[in-house]
Specification:
single chain; alpha/beta; 10 strands; 2 domains; 10 helices; 297 residues; 14% strand; four-stranded parallel β-sheet; Rossmann fold
Amino acid sequence: MRRLLACLTAALTLSLVSACGTSGTPADSDKVAITAAFYPLAFISERIGGDAVSVTTLAQPGAEPHDLELTPRQLADVHDAKLVVYLDGFQPAVDTAVKAEAADHSLDVGALVPRLQGTDEDGHPAKDPHLWLDPTRLATIGDALARRLGEVDPAHAADYTTRAAKLHADLAELDMEYATGLSKCQRQAIVTGHEAFGYLADRYNLKQIGLAGLDPEIEPTPQRLAEVAAAARSTGATTIFFETLVSPKIAETIAKEVGAKTAVLDPIEGLEQGSSGDYISIMRSNLTTLREALGCS
């Protein structure tokens, strides 16, 4: 219901914006204006675009991005951008805005890499959106973004390619750190607040046990809580992970029931208010947390 209301609100606002014509101009007309739907896409846009672009992020720090509702100003950012970078199916209001205002100047990153299946709020199979938690997939997306930016701004195409290659190398190094760091562990199961870590688990041979499905705001049923508690016991889990931007109460309840501790495992859907980290530093922090929780040598 929340997502339906968000979509209807966005559609109504879009009609008002369109009726009034162009509702804004980029902050710096000398730069390529990119509107990124949420943090990981803003991260790669800034790394690849460098000083040739100006990046606006729709999901603000401290806000959970799944059910984002767009303001008129943000709708104008979608309309005015030279390129909108988004993930179809992750943020319904953004999907609506892109279809209405940016169909000819958008890049759906979900179409660029193989997708995994997860579970939606009704327990049905659904495409897992959290693809950025596999550094190799994010590197592929970065390469495609550089090519698209080169088409938008041919004068800087070589620069975009060079920066994408550097980002690709950094992500390959991060991938190697994960592969090495998680290769010899006492446990492979990770009990998480919601099913945000499917790509990470798939890449590094872990088993994800999510309290909730793909949407962190849908509370698990008592039956699901009992199933997760039983799975945590059977796998010998010593840690129940909770996330930034989401309440830890349910994770704390399960941890108390099974005699485990809790720790933060960041899905990097957005940054916390005042955070000084970036995607790569947060991923490295996650690796340290995983190694301790899984008893890795």
